[in-house]
Amino acid sequence: MHLNLLETFRAVIEQKSTQAAAKTLGITQSAVSRRIAQLEDELKLELFRRDKGRLIPTRDCQALQGNIFGMVDRGQHLQQLAQDLQHGNSPAIRLRIAVPASLTLSIMPRIIRQFLEQNDRVQIELHSGPYDTIERMLLDDRAELGFLRIPAQREGLHVMPAIETHTVCVMPDAHPLTQKKVITMADLRGQPLILLGRMRAPRRELDEAFWTAGLPPNARVEAHSVLSACSMVAEGLGLTLVNALMARDFAHLGLTTRPLYPLLSHRFAFAASAELPMSQAAENFVRLGSAVLDSLR
């Protein structure tokens, strides 16, 4: 049964004439009459008596009126909800996002602020953790959207590249190496280093760069996030080598960054499960997030 038949019934009851109902609905009077006749045919009931062009509600009509009005209200609510979901802005949407902890200081809050300014009815649920945890959350449907270093380690993920950056050397503002525009592997000879965990891809690439230069790294501390590595640099425990995207958030700790040569690239992407299509809200978030990240280049 089409909702427009029920809406026409309600308009006739409330306006008390087909002419007034037609004006309310923006259709012709004959269209109103046809819809009422079609509704009666579908229900196999006479809802109105015709008397000199007037429609007089029958007892059956009066018995059904409350139910029909309720169906119209629910149908209109459903239509509005569907329209909101199509635009990705509905109070029914809880967008679950998983990102590295190092991205939560300013970059992700900035993206979320701009997203909520444009999608003011959506709720955000933000999770943080290492990349392998984020991948598991996406595959287990504990998060709809994630931010990963690519290539991803697991299959079954839909990856949307967002930004490419490079490794930088992070050091205290007063460190002698801040006088150099570029830091080479030779500059790091004997320097105490805070390096990311050995099982991570960036660490393997760094170890290879040290090996190629013939310099064993003086690894004093092993950290497992850019946030913790940069915080320890601020405490004077050594220098760290991390990606420039996340390192930018720690300048307030009195830290300076310089590009590392040879250049080591890092590629990042938004990701989602390949098994489930993304919601419109998630697509909106990826589009906005990618634009914000692009502005940081």
Provide a descriptive summary of the structure in words.
This protein is α/β, with parallel strands linked by helices. It has three domains: 3-87, Winged helix-like DNA-binding domain superfamily/Winged helix DNA-binding domain (Arc Repressor Mutant, subunit A, Orthogonal Bundle), CATH 1.10.10; 94-162 and 267-295, Periplasmic binding protein-like II (D-Maltodextrin-Binding Protein, domain 2), CATH 3.40.190.10; 163-266, D-Maltodextrin-Binding Protein, domain 2 (3-Layer(aba) Sandwich), CATH 3.40.190.290. Helices cover 43% and strands 25% of the residues. The chain has ten helices and twelve strands. The protein has helices at 3-15, 18-25, 29-43, 59-87, 107-118, 131-139, 201-213, 226-234, 244-247, 280-295, and strands at residues 48-51, 54-57, 94-99, 123-128, 145-150, 157-172, 183-184, 193-196, 219-223, 239-243, 255-261, 265-273. Strands 3, 4, 5, 6, 7, 8, 9, 10, 11 and 12 form a ten-stranded mixed β-sheet that branches. A hairpin with a 2-residue loop joins strand 1 (48-51) and strand 2. Helix 2 (18-25) packs across helix 3 (29-43) and helix 5 (107-118) crosses helix 10 (280-295). The model has no long low-confidence stretch (mean pLDDT 91).
